[in-house]
Design brief:
This is DUF5666 domain-containing protein. Among the domains are: 130 residues, no CATH class; 94 residues, no CATH class. Helix content is 0%, strand content 36%. It contains no helices and 25 strands.
Length: 398
């Protein structure tokens, strides 16, 4: 049976704790194919596996598509059964979904915290903490928890292995749980800066989740298994994964220790924020990265057919309305788009300047709006002409 790309570890044997082993090769999915952009309507055969963060309003949505929860069969939080009322904004979930009446419907939901344990360090600026040996970057938190408090952290790891926290909850002291890349050094295993010891651990290089007692900086493992966020039913053949990816050596790294081959036409433009990566599992070529999209919904590959409208031209300088700069979208396929109107900037004493080009390739831009001058309204300039047919038209010049 072919190993699942996201089923990270099958513990066929137990290993003695504390022995240093050479790292196993990072998990990968060789054999890529071409493709750009994300086609959420590409439904596959066996369903769609989704990894993402619950929205601020408590809803599930990824790649601009809402995920229904009317048909959920099971919900688990850190491996324990729960209900839909356990979902909270900012939690990271793995969703096995099926298409039903033109909508993705979640079948199973798995919520898990990246790390859950005591706060050991708090940065002076209050923007970073260390929880059970894991560095956590607080994203927009009102205040950092205090040293010694116990917290459960939801978030995604970036390319450096730092957890970008999307939610931090207080919890009672007890066992510590950590998900991450198991590494080996001369003294044994570790997860980040956390020393890990136990009788049931896989070879180094696996992404796992461990739970146990935290004693003097060492996690004594009680249980270990595959990371539930990266373990889907075998029938699923399409994936949408929210991540902080990086490209290196011709490979796309979704998280430390997990990489895929990038298709020749696949282009990653880092934004500093999370991206949605589309992946397809093919019988003869394995897992391939087929598209990338910003969390806001815009395709990061400019010029794809039917591209979203480009942004507005730059604002004119003070004194005279300046021309809006440049087209908002690069030429692409045959989908036409209308150019937006150019807006004249405010004039100091005289007329506003000509409106900038509508920017997007497509139809002719509309007329520029009049910019108000100090002694009277400026005259409206004409909107710029759209380019030849291609991607959607740009926004207005300002």
């Amino acid at each position: 049976m072919r190993r699942r790309w996201l089923s990270l570890a099958l513990f066929a044997a137990t290993l003695p704790g504390g022995c240093g082993l050479p790292p196993a090769p990072p998990l990968d999915a060789d054999r890529g194919i071409g493709g750009t952009g994300i086609d959420v309507a590409d439904r596959g055969i066996g369903g769609t596996g989704i990894v993402g963060v619950v929205g601020k309003d408590g809803t599930l949505a990824i790649a601009g598509r809402q995920i229904g929860t009317n048909a959920v069969a099971s919900v688990h939080v850190d491996g324990l059964p729960a209900g839909l009322d356990a979902l909270r904004p900012g939690q990271v979930v793995a969703v096995a979904a099926q298409w039903q009446q033109d909508r993705l419907q979640a079948r199973t939901l798995a919520v898990r915290h990246e790390v859950s344990g005591p706060v050991e360090e708090v940065a002076a600026e209050g923007d970073r903490i260390v929880v059970a040996g894991q560095t956590v970057r607080l994203e927009g938190a009102d205040s950092a928890p205090r040293r010694g408090e116990w917290v459960a952290v939801s978030g995604l790891r970036d390319a450096e292995g730092v957890i970008r926290a999307s939610r931090v909850d207080q919890r009672r002291p007890g066992e510590v749980s950590v998900s991450g890349l198991l590494e080996a050094d001369g003294r044994g295993w570790r997860l980040g800066a956390l020393a890990v010891r136990g009788a049931v651990l896989p070879p180094a290089g696996q992404r796992i989740r461990v739970t146990g007692r935290y004693v003097r900086g060492v996690l004594q493992v009680r249980s270990a298994g595959p990371d539930p966020l990266l373990d889907f039913p075998p029938a699923i053949d399409r994936f949408l994964v929210e991540a902080y990816p990086r490209s290196e050596g011709g490979r796309l790294w979704l998280v430390p220790g997990l990489s895929v081959v990038m298709a020749p036409s696949f282009t990653l433009v880092p934004t500093g924020g999370p991206l949605v990566i589309a992946l397809t599992l093919e019988a003869d070529r394995g897992l391939v990265a087929t598209g990338v999209q910003e969390m806001g919904g815009g395709q990061s590959d400019a010029g794809s057919p039917g591209a979203a409208p480009g942004g507005p031209g730059q604002h004119g300088s003070a004194g005279h309305g300046g021309m809006g700069n440049g087209p908002g979208a690069a030429p692409g396929g045959a989908a036409p788009g209308g150019g937006g109107p150019g807006n004249a900037g405010p004039g100091s004493d005289g007329p506003g300047g000509a409106g900038g080009p509508g920017g997007g390739p497509g139809g002719v831009g509309g007329p520029g709006g009049g910019g108000p001058g100090n002694d009277g309204p400026g005259g409206g300039g004409p909107g710029g002409a759209g380019g030849p047919g291609g991607g959607g038209g740009g926004g207005p010049g300002r």
